[in-house]
Amino acid sequence: MAEGNETAGDRRNARKVREGIAVSTKMDKTVVVAVVDRVRHPRYHKTVQRTKKLYAHDEANDVRVGDRVRVAETRPLSKQKRWRVVEVLERAR
Fold first, then answer.
1. How much of the chain, in percent, has pLDDT values that exceed 70?
2. What CA–CA distance (Å, rounded) separates 71 from 13?
3. Residue range 29-44, pLDDT digits in tens
């Protein structure tokens, strides 16, 4: 396939999608999501858990602490917010 035949959508990188647990919902229209990533240690080959906190936009304020959510990368919405809540996968019990 020639380069000229590619559409604009093919050339762009797809937006990242992550799943995590909501750890804080105290802000208005913002939720903090803890995303756990399992990586192998380069030397010792043990599986290590790395946790990253992402600030995500929650327009409807319907996410509660403990919910499992899917977040997608988006343009910067504030100083720290670069993600938005796509859907709630599982409600906290």
1. 88
2. 17
3. 999 999 999 999 999 9
pLDDT band at 4 (very low <50, low <70, confident <90, very high): low
CA distance 63 to 67: 7
Which residues is 17 bridged to in the sheet?
72
Reported pTM:
0.81
Q: What is the 3-state secondary structure (H, E, C) of the chain?
A: CCHHHCCHHHHCCCCCEEEEEEEECCCCCEEEEEEEEEEECCCCCCEEEEEEEEEEECCCCCCCCCCEEEEEECCCCCCCCCEEEEEEEECCC
List domains and CATH numbers for the chain.
Answer: 27-90 (2.40.50.140)
Q: Are 89 and 64 in contact (CB under 8 A)?
A: no
- Give the side-chain half-sphere CA count within 13 A for 29: 6
Beta-bridge partners for 38: 49
